[in-house]
């Protein structure tokens, strides 16, 4: 879309806004006083001004700005939209429409017409030429209106000024005059507050005299751009109470010196101000008519211009302050380069679907690139051609694109960690323990799908740690520990994976009891000789629960084995280390993304399968002497004097009817749930490769023994082996899908 | 004109069907469920799959299961050749590939030309056949794909959990 097209859209929108503007004004003219109508009119002009500003249509902006200022007075009930006022406004709407047409089609509006209306509008905004009845009311916003839009001029010399004498002749009951001293500190600006805006808000309360205190302004060379040098002394006459005046500074009151004092109405003289000579009292005596120019109106216009010039001075002062605030912000941003990286200004919100689509496309690109490479290699005999070099570069590029795209999906683990602190609080309350959760590395990033999926197992583990890990306060005190237990949750990156550690300073695993329980539950034989580590890992065994009483909190003994299964389903591993009396540490290592997987590509019964690399401990070529038959059709392989069951993958997956001869194949030693090892027999190893994971469930169904599918370099689908299910099947368990955590409770 | 045509066809309950051939029989499915038609490519066999699942192929990055329609409809399993085609169809939320011998016709018919399925003993035919069409001298059996691949059968495994 080029600039002209965008401009065209802007003009189309202008047409709509102008129609809206006119119908709104006509409604007002018919006596409609609905604030929403006024708002609609105001918005219409404001939108036109905003759009025009973006295209640099200065004439349009200037006029719309004046128009808008006047409308703002109507909006804030400072100007009564009577027939006369509306007449001017409808005329202005026409001029605005003409200006829009001129901006689009060229040509120009008669300058006298525009200027005349600008003056009339300004007069209205400044409350100078309304009919008699409105005079006292309309006189109030004198300072407010121009100060409200400090966008017109840029000057740099702050001029102190006053509206002395203005409004003094009003007969006002319950008007108070306050002396406000406002001196912002540098913190006010560093927190993004803005003195000009506060002063503007203050000006809306009533008639205001303002003086800038520049005593502390140093010379230019010694000026600190981040410091705050200005203070303001304001005398404001308003019907509001002192609290309401203070309320203006509500969000800034800790970052400024603020003094609000009620004074006599005539206390203005005490302020060190340079009075600007300027008297409007004559206007209040004789009502001025807008439609028919009279000498008084001429005076009013002259006076209005004076007001304008004063307003410009205010703007200049305000702008200087804004400039210094901007400098402050810029400097702060530079100082804080690290923080700036995560700042709002540098992020965009993108629909997740779009990112996923991009990831899928890049996945396709990777596959296509691999297919291309493969066919070039097959057709290229000398292997040194420039095509090969180009392909290599392409491969690197695609890999880089893939990594970058994956990084888009990466999110910090912070939200999950934050959720955990609430769970700790709730569960600790329930069981009457004092527990503090310490988190570390919350900004460690990992793929969004991984984040979504670790929340559940992590919740389970946290509950377990609170329920079983940490002792009651009495026990802790008896053991000479801080009655308040500590659970530490940390995340960090390690060699292309994310490592999440959950550490408690509780009693640690009671190995005697764990062992006894395992014997009771027939998980191990009574005379089994287990190492400490093996005992600790028993808690991951299916159907194991150490809590003497089954509690609502940590479930019914399906806890840790389900946690382990969920972690493994994510391609992760979990382990525990425990020191009696000092606590336990669970360590989870998870892949950074679920979209790709490092796999070993193997051949089984003529089919290509991918075995997740994380599951494989080692690969070996079995020798005939190492294979031992065991029972009817079981075989064991001896590896360094220990025996490990041999599992024929082709047989388990029904790819062949009879067991293959192990000597002809390769054994992959895998670690399965429960810590036991199995040797998976495959026919051959093709190589290691990163593969893009494709769902089988999307169009087909879950297949026992198969975790997912992928597409290889030749464009064909290869299946990714579900190692745990295959091992489970070899144990005689039926290959059923994993129990979900939710179902297990 | 097209609007009046659409109104007319709606009022008469007209619909378009795609007809395909398996052996010496002809079948048809609603054209609205057909996404594309492509040539046969070698499928990767799936373990523990029913006999009529030939395996899965790569459909522009998605894993597409291939159903041998001949076997699924109770006839002898197909021996796919390069002349076989795959009808990629949408069945509820899933996309499946139907292996057939050839696509023979695209039919525009009105509902009143569909004859009811005669009383037959076979449950399989009753399960999927929704009617019979007589086009010239041919007999074409209208199949409802949703009945052939009920979501439940697909999700048998997850339901057991």
From TrEMBL, chain A:
Histidine kinase domain location: 343-594
Example GO biological process: chemotaxis
Annotated transmembrane regions: none
GO molecular function, one term: ATP binding
Annotated ranges, domain HPt: 1-103
Alphabetized UniProt keyword annotations: ATP-binding, Chemotaxis, Kinase, Nucleotide-binding, Phosphoprotein, Transferase, Two-component regulatory system
Its job: Involved in the transmission of sensory signals from the chemoreceptors to the flagellar motors. CheA is autophosphorylated; it can transfer its phosphate group to either CheB or CheY.
The protein, known as: Chemotaxis protein CheA
TrEMBL record, chain B:
Top-level taxon of origin: Bacteria
GO CC list: cytosol
Example of a GO biological process term: chemotaxis
InterPro entries listed in its UniProt record: CheW (IPR039315), CheW-like_dom_sf (IPR036061), CheW-lke_dom (IPR002545)
SUPFAM superfamilies on file: CheW-like
Domain (CheW-like) ranges: 14-154
Protein known as: Chemotaxis protein CheW
């Amino acid at each position: 879309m080029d600039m002209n097209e965008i401009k065209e859209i802007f003009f189309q929108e202008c047409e709509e806004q102008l129609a809206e503007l006119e119908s709104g004004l006509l409604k007002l003219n018919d006596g409609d006083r609905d604030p929403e109508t006024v708002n609609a009119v105001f918005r219409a002009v404001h939108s036109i001004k905003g759009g025009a500003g973006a295209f640099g249509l200065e004439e349009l902006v200037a006029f719309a700005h004046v128009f808008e200022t006047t409308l703002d007075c109507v909006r804030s009930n400072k100007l009564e939209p009577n027939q006369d006022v509306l007449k001017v406004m409808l005329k202005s709407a026409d001029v605005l429409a003409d200006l829009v047409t001129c901006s689009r089609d060229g040509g120009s509006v008669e300058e006298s017409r525009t200027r005349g209306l600008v003056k009339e509008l300004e007069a209205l905004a400044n409350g100078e030429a309304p009919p008699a009845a409105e005079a006292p009311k309309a006189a109030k916003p004198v300072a407010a209106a121009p100060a409200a839009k400090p966008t017109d001029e840029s000057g740099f010399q702050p001029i102190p000024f006053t509206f002395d004498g203005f409004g003094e002749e009003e007969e006002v009951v319950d008007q108070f005059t306050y002396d406000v001293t406002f001196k912002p500190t540098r913190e006010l600006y560093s927190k993004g507050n803005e003195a000009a805006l506060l002063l503007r808000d203050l000006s809306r309360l009533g008639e205001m005299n303002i003086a800038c205190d520049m005593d502390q302004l140093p010379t230019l060379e010694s000026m600190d751009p981040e410091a705050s040098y200005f203070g303001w002394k304001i005398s404001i006459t308003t019907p509001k109470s002192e609290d309401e005046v203070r309320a203006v500074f509500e969000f800034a009151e800790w970052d400024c010196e603020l003094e609000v004092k009620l004074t006599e109405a005539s206390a203005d003289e005490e302020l060190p101000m340079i009075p600007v000579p300027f008297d409007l009292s004559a206007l209040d005596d004789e009502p001025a008519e807008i439609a028919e120019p009279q000498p008084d109106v001429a005076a009013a216009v002259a006076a209005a211009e004076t007001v304008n010039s004063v307003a410009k001075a205010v703007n200049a002062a305000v702008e200087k302050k804004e400039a210094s605030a901007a400098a402050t912000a810029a400097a702060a941003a530079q100082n804080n380069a690290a923080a700036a990286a995560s700042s709002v200004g540098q992020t965009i919100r993108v629909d997740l679907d779009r990112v996923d689509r991009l990831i899928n496309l890049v996945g396709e690109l990777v596959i296509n690139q691999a297919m291309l490479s493969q066919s070039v290699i097959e057709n290229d005999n000398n292997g040194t051609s420039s095509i090969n070099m180009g392909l290599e570069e392409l491969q690197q590029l695609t890999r880089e694109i893939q990594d970058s795209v994956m990084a888009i999906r990466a999110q910090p683990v912070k939200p999950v960690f934050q959720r955990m602190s609430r769970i700790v609080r709730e569960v600790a309350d329930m069981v009457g323990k004092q527990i503090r959760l310490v988190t570390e590395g919350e900004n460690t990033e990992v793929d969004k799908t991984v984040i979504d999926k670790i929340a559940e197992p992590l919740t389970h583990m946290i509950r377990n740690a609170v329920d079983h890990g940490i002792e009651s306060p009495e026990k802790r005190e008896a053991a000479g520990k801080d009655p308040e237990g500590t659970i530490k949750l940390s995340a960090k990156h390690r060699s292309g994976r994310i490592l999440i550690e959950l550490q408690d300073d509780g009693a640690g695993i009671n190995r005697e009891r764990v062992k006894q329980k395992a014997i009771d539950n027939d998980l191990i034989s009574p005379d089994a000789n287990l190492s400490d580590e093996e005992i600790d890992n028993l808690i991951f065994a299916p159907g194991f629960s150490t809590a003497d009483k089954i509690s609502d909190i940590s479930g019914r003994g399906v806890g840790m084995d389900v946690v382990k299964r969920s972690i493994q389903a994510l391609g992760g591993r979990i382990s525990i280390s425990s020191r009696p009396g000092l606590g336990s540490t669970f360590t989870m290592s998870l892949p950074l993304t679920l979209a790709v997987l490092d796999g070993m590509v193997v051949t089984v019964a003529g089919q290509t399968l991918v075995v997740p690399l994380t599951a494989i401990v080692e690969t070996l070529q079995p020798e005939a002497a190492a294979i031992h038959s065991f029972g009817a059709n079981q075989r064991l392989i001896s590896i360094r004097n220990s025996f490990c069951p041999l599992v024929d993958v082709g047989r388990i997956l029904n790819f062949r009817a009879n067991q293959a001869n192990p000597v002809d194949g390769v054994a992959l030693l895998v670690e399965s749930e429960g810590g036991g090892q199995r040797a998976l027999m495959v026919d051959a190893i093709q190589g290691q490769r990163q593969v893009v994971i494709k769902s089988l469930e999307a169009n087909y169904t879950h297949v026992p023994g198969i975790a997912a599918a992928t597409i290889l370099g030749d464009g064909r689908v290869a299946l990714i082996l579900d190692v745990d299910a295959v091992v489970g099947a070899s144990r005689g368990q039926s290959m059923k899908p994993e129990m979900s955590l939710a179902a297990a409770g | 004109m097209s609007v009046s045509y659409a109104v007319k066809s709606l009022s008469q309950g007209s619909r378009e069907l795609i007809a395909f051939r398996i052996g010496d029989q002809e079948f048809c499915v609603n054209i609205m469920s057909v996404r594309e038609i492509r040539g046969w490519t070698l499928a990767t066999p799936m373990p523990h799959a029913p006999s009529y699942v030939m395996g899965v192929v790569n459909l522009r990055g998605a894993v597409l299961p291939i159903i041998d329609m001949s076997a699924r409809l109770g006839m002898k399993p197909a021996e796919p050749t390069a002349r076989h085609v795959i009808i990629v169809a949408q069945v509820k939320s899933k996309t499946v590939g139907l292996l057939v011998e050839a696509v023979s016709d695209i039919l525009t018919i009105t509902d009143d030309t569909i004859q009811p399925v005669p009383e037959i003993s076979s449950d399989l035919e009753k399960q999927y056949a929704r009617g019979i069409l007589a086009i010239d001298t041919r007999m074409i059996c209208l199949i409802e794909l949703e009945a052939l691949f009920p979501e439940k059968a697909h999700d048998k495994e997850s339901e057991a959990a």
